[in-house]
Amino acid sequence: MGGGWHDALVTMPPPSAHPRDAVAAAVRALGEQEVVAWCGTLVRGEPSRHPLGWLGGTEGWPAHWAREWGVRGLRYAWGAGADATVRSALRDEHPRVRAMAVAVAVARGVDDAVPLVEALRDDAAPRVRAAAERALRRWAS
């Protein structure tokens, strides 16, 4: 693998790329564990250490969008620390981040997140409540 994003600029995904394809390009350029760690830094609200285009985004995003797309990246890249990042995102202040974290938790089988997701059935945001109900039905089946 290359030493960082600068080694693979020519393979930066186009802005129209599906997040799955954008993250796959990031994994090829940076390595899966680096992408997972980077997604964690985004969820924690830290400055991005790589261009957000690797996740299908653009620079200058509102802070909650970077956190949401950090979680979304974990739908397509997984490794050490990813489950903790998802659990943390379930407590995020912004409903879009919480809703995406619910979707990733169930997609990735973060089963120890079930109690956190159950609590989100009473979330103030309809989007989060709906995501929690869908996830709990899926876990139950």
UniProtKB/TrEMBL annotation:
Coiled coil: none
InterPro entries for the chain: ARM-like, ARM-type_fold, HEAT_type_2
Alphabetical list of SUPFAM superfamilies matching this protein: ARM repeat
This protein's name: HEAT repeat domain-containing protein
PROSITE patterns: HEAT_REPEAT
Organism: Agrococcus versicolor
